[in-house]
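Input/output pair, single chain:
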Amino acid sequence: KQVIISKSRFGGVNARGSDLSFSKMTEVDMKGAILKYADFNSCTLTDVNMTNSNLIGADLKDAQCAGVQWEEVNLEGSDLTYANFEGANFKNAFLLEANLHGTNFTKANLSDAYLVDANLAKAIVFRKGQTSAALVVCDLIGVATDLSKEIRRRASAKTGIPIGHIVVAATHSHTAPDYTRELWLFLGGVRENPSRSEYIEKLISAPVEAIAKAYAIAEPATLACGTTPQRKPVAFNRRFVMQDGSVKTWMKLDSPGVVKSAGPVDPEIGLALFRSISQDRPIGIVSNFALHLDTVGGTKWSADYPFFIEKSLQEKMGEDMISLFATGCCGDINHVDPSTPQRHSADWIGAAIGDSILTGLESLTPSKDPSIFAKSLLVHLPSRDVSKEEVASSSEVVAAAKRKEKVEFLEHVDSYKNLVIDQFQRKQPFGKSTDLMTWGLSRSLAGVGPELPVEVTVMTMGRDLAIVCLPGEVFVELGLAIKQASPFRTTLVVELSNAVETIYIPHRAAYAGGSYEVTNSALRAGGGEILVEAALKLLRQAAAETVAK
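Output:
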């Protein structure tokens, strides 16, 4: 502690757990050193080489590390709060789950660094008598039908939970792997890249193991549920009515031609709190809020703001408490306030939602009825049709974009969607576009015809809690319609469940206005209303059976 080290070599040294707080190191070579859990609090490092070192769990709070070499360093779980890394080299460094609050990375080299936090799969299993159900939420941008089918098949075989009682949902994190092409190859028996094939196996097996573990350790618990308002504004409708009657996405209220917002937000956070009866402590919170997960940006791995929700809840309720965030219907909702240029960060949004949840826990109502209902309903949504000529021109546009040629954004979006639909509608597609596509390739949906088969799933606990699970990116108005008509006191509506290939699911009126989300929907108008009807049919069946019991 408080040592001064200058012009020294410590390559490969084992200094695990050492206290180097308030020390000064100048021109020191620590390449390959083992520094797990070492204390560098308020340390000043100048011209130090930490390449290949292991600093898992190290404390670098308030450290001055400008220009230090951290190439290929493992900083997993380290506390980097307010550390100064200006101009530092973090190439290929591993910073998973490091505390980066207030960290200065100005002009730092973060190329290929694994940054921010882990992408996880979290599962909750409900069991009562002979009835069981499972919801697993993955930090992915979407759950492809191929992926959900394989996870549900394996999880059912391991646990005995019926496939129709298992839901695999995505949070819609935009800082997650684009896995669809590799999954398509894997399920077709093709192994082009061994490391990617290994990841696909993990992508399937990890959610399965989460469900199996939750099933195995299930214990008697109490349920309290309800809703609470999101107190700080974090969600905004991103579609705007223009003076000419059209609708545009991603505008500002003061942009020329803007009349008003095109739709509402859902201000409520749905909550379900589970407490262990034997341990008399909270073991998990399921929360549900309608807000797009695109608040981090870049190409580093992150679960986005739900990670920070869990952090804020665990600070108050203990690190063993699991926060399972299920994304609400937010196809037309994002975090950009159209009245100001300011954009809130993922940690600010997560903390704001976490604070609202903690306040809302005080007003939740205990459930007295432990009965469980679970059922899935297969519905067929009408997909848009694409002609042979449209597929040919779309292939040219996508190929040009792949060559980095300039292509108009909505034209690219529309063309790629047409190639995806072509794969679904025909056993012999018009276009041979597998070389042009990453997302959208599907073994399950190839050649299914003019309608997309998707499932709507409802799980209920007594008369108090209903969880409705829908495919695709659903407009907020459709989720609000389900909540309004639900016969259950608290209804959580979860999007991106078991299928993502619908892409956006607007309400019927939105098709008249157009814009990005309508352009990027695989469905014809009316598909969203079909989902609402199916959800309400299941909710009414669940309510009737609960009353009969």
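Residues 194-216 form the longest helix (23 residues). Residues 269 and 289 are 5 Å apart (CA to CA).
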